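Allow me, if you will, to draw on your knowledge of protein folds for a short while. I have a record of one protein: its chain in single-letter code and its fold written as discrete structure tokens. The full record is reproduced below for your convenience:
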Amino acid sequence: MRRDVARWGAIILSLLTAGFLPAAAGASELIGRNATGVGLQVDAAGRAAVSFRSEGQSRVVVAWGAVNARHPSRGQTQVAFTVQIGGRIGPNTCTPYRGPPLAWLVAACTARDGSHWAVQAWQRMLPNYGAAARGDRAARELRLSHWTGPLPVLEIWTDWSYRRFHHLYGRLTYGGRGVFGFAATRWGVPLDAYGRNVFVDTYGSAYGAGWRRENSFLTHAPGGAFCYGFYPHGGHGAGNGTRYRATVIGPGVTPDVMWQGSAPAPYDPSADAQANAAQRELLANDRRCVVN
């Protein structure tokens, strides 16, 4: 029985990472990979059509029926688009985009009701620890979002782990409340529509020049907090770089958000003590983050 559970867990994980199964419903909608010539139109009924070319073919995806996000809840499902592959919408009524700046932006517009639609593209499934990416693992995912009001907020600070390794700690919030899920695999893949992974990249590290994927990890209940050290993991060398960035799929159908910042300065005991105090306050109820 235990072997069967492990075998099916591995199969499910491989399907998730290959992109054949959604990691979670209720997210900025994955509508294509390695797309070019992306167009976005929205009709008066609130139906969005995203047109693009992928794998040598012209494609259209129509989505409607969702905006913003719900806060984590065991009793309510997260909002999600209704999606149709192909199809048509009415005449385009979306006006030039008037919303906040977005990372990874490909196309955006503002609808007549004042809500915003956006299409973003980034490499979510890169392998960890700077490994070379091939096939779907290297693909740029095309993701659609629809929202009003403020965006999710990804806050990250830097300090040190064990005095010599760089360390990140922070939180993901929406509407002033933490973003987190209620179930995940032992590999950290969310099993509900509320869970979110933080995908971290390192720049100028021992992995090689440019940006390389370091790792991904879950945000924690109840405040959406998290922590990560760039020390050696499972036989892989330390991922210390000169800069870091982190990207998270927005809760519900809100946009994906990205943080970028410099690595911490050389170890400073006084600054480390201040950072540790800040972490104890931020992570007060989080047993999965150890302050050191």
Notes: Residues 270 and 276 are 10 Å apart (CA to CA). Confidence is low (pLDDT under 50) at residues 1-25.
